[in-house]
Design a protein that fits this description.
The protein is α+β, with helices and mostly antiparallel strands and about 200 residues long. It has one domain. Helix content is about 45%, strand content about 20%. The strands form two sheets. It has a four-stranded antiparallel sheet, with no helix packed on it. It has a four-stranded mixed sheet with strand order 7-6-5-8. Strand 3 and strand 4 form a beta hairpin. Helix 2 runs antiparallel to helix 3. The model has no long low-confidence stretch (mean pLDDT about 85).
Length: about 200
């Protein structure tokens, strides 16, 4: 019980710092020019993970009741299990996808400017040389449902003639403009319920 009063100021400070950081990023985005270089930035990650984290944050205090499992009735236990399954069922799949996409594209940089006909991919700051003619096929995988927390997670796989496969996830940017740019290549658009790379 002594732990709760200690955690509250820490959580309030963390929430205030996060709110200030997001607010500053939002305000400075008005003065920044439109970038053509895409990386897994904080703002992009926050936009994708906002609803799963909010769901988890709202449900976590209720899930703490599992520590008092010996003192609650069967009816309360059933309600608690239902609530836990809803909270975890909505938030955990999106957070798992987010972690997988982050691990995949942590060191990836996409340079994309359709007006200048530029599409370049860098891994660890090393450019992967290819052109549209080097693409054997392109897979664009999107989520079947548009109403789930993980619906915005999608990816593009660029299969090169060398046998190399470049994976671009939605953690970098929205992939619809990139897929539109690659429409004259052998583009396969597939939909899945859960877009695991």
């Amino acid at each position: 019980m002594k732990l709760i009063p200690f955690l509250r100021p820490l959580l309030e400070a963390a929430a205030a710092i996060t709110l200030m950081a997001v607010g500053l990023r939002f305000i400075t985005s008005f003065f920044a020019s439109k970038s053509r270089v895409y990386r897994p930035t904080f703002l992009r990650q926050f936009a994708l993970a906002f609803w799963p984290l909010l769901c988890l944050g709202v449900g976590m205090p209720f899930l703490m009741s599992f520590f008092y499992i010996g003192t609650i009735s069967t009816y309360e236990l059933v309600l608690l299990i239902l609530l836990a399954s809803v909270v975890l069922g909505f938030s955990l799949p999106a957070l798992l996808l987010h972690a997988q996409y982050y691990a995949r594209n942590l060191h990836t940089t996409l340079v994309f400017d359709p007006k200048q006909n530029v599409l370049e991919v860098y891994e660890e700051r090393v450019r992967i040389p290819f052109s549209k003619s080097d693409l054997v096929r392109v897979e664009w995988v999107t989520c079947t449902s548009r109403r789930m927390f993980w619906s915005n997670y999608e990816y593009l796989k660029l299969h090169l003639q060398t046998g190399e496969v470049l994976t671009l996830t939605s953690l970098l940017t929205k992939l619809a403009p990139v897929a539109e740019f690659l429409r004259n290549t052998p583009l396969e658009h597939r939909q899945r319920w859960f877009c695991i790379v």
